[in-house]
Amino acid sequence: MSATTTVIKASCLCGKANFTVTLPSTSLPLRSWICHCDTCRKNQGSIALFHTEIPALDSASVSPLSVYKTSENSNRYFCPVCGCHPCEWDEGVRKWYLSTGVIQREDFPLIEFTEHIFIEDTKDGGLSNWLPSVNGKLLKRWSHHARKSQELPLSWASSELQSTPSDKLRARCSCGGVDFYISRPLFDSPEFRKDFPDLKIPSETVPRSKEHWFIAKDKQKWIAGFCTCTSCRLANGMDVMSWTYVPTSLITPADGSSHRLEFGTLKRYQSSDKVIRRFCGKCGATVFYQVDHRPNLVDVAVGLLESTSGAKAEDWLEWRKDDFSFRDEARDTKLVEELLHGYQAQQQR
Predict the structure, then answer these.
(1) What is the per-residue pLDDT for 259?
(2) Rounded to whole angstroms, how far apart are CA atoms 141 and 276?
(3) Which ranges in the chain belong to alpha helices (H)?
(4) Most buried of 94, 157, 199, 257, CB within 10 angstroms?
């Protein structure tokens, strides 16, 4: 890096996606945004997508990656090994977008979040209502495209928002290759008679002794929360990843076959000796996280859920009121701290 240029380095969890981008230093910080559209949530598996615009990438940078077209112009690149989504090429406007979670940040400001876009797709405001500002600067809140649509107020929710009571909740990736249902808590299931002491709320060294930590106070809901660990960030591409926790016996493939975690277009990646991550091999969507000391309980990517109550799926999920998991590993600490503050303030109302 010279005085006039800055080099951005980016990589996925397994390292197959590994590239650098050289920018004029005068272009920093890069304008960045948070997208809440249905397409991004379904394609990534996260409750929102964090993107920034960069100059063109050379063909060698993206040649090891798989690509999935979510529209005529949108080409979403993902790692075929670990499932990370590092970048997108928009043929319509001839621009490259980089997922901010894959950036290896240095001690200078690389990006600046300025706005939320496509909030209206969430129906309930989604993550945007928990993150009104970053670095003390209020974010613009657009119903659809930035500067081409209506600005929405904080805590916006659709006037047509409704919750349709149901015993099953569908979850699907962007391409539909991974399609399944989760059921409401069922206490006569064998898994519910076992203790799952692994959840560090979010990362306590002493496990909780209380059984059924994954059940909300409302016994018809599952617990949901955010993780900011390095592995989740680099496996998904987002600065924060949203999960809910469901016993495998209550996950049923849409084709009606018995519960299992190998179906459809799922691929698996063993990110450590004890952890298996699953993503769609066709569109790259993050789907499941499984750790060996709780084999009958998995983390399910919240972005895939199709709740009639909105992106936060609050008719099915109870979002934790405590800290994020592994916040000490967060790369963009300012972003995560302000999200946590807004998240806790909303949850305590």
Answers:
(1) 72
(2) 36
(3) 38-44, 59-62, 230-236, 333-347
(4) 199
What does the DSSP assignment read for 305-338?
B--TT-TT-TTTEEE-SSPPBTGGG-SSHHHHHH
Summarised one tens digit per residue, pLDDT across range 3-13 is 789 888 999 99
Q: Hey, where are the domains in the chain? A: 5-141, 168-347
Q: Give the other-Cβ count within 10 Å of 72's Cβ.
A: 8
CATH C-level class of 5-141 = mainly beta
* Residue 202 preceded by cis peptide, ω within 30: yes
Provide the CATH topology of domain 168-347.
2.170.150
**Mean pLDDT (whole number) for 317-339:** 90
Joined together, the tokens standing for residue 233 give: 């960030």
For the segment 139-171, what is each residue's pLDDT rounded down to a tens digit?
A: 999 999 999 999 999 999 998 877 777 899 999
Angle at 340 between CA 221 and CA 238, to 5 degrees: 85
- State yes or no: pLDDT of 193 exceeds 60: no
280 secondary structure, DSSP code: E
253: cis peptide before it, omega within 30°? Answer: no
Look at residues 170, 169, 172, 182 and name the one whose alpha carbon lies nearest to residue 266.
172
Tokens representing residue 98 in the block: 């980089």
117: left (phi over 0), alpha (psi -120 to 50) or beta: beta
The two three-digit tokens of residue 9, written as one number: 């380095």
Distance between CA atoms of residues 238 and 46, nearest Å: 8
- Tell me if residue 129 falls in helix, strand or coil: helix
pLDDT at 55: 84
Higher pLDDT, 106 or 19: 19
Which pTM was predicted?
0.91
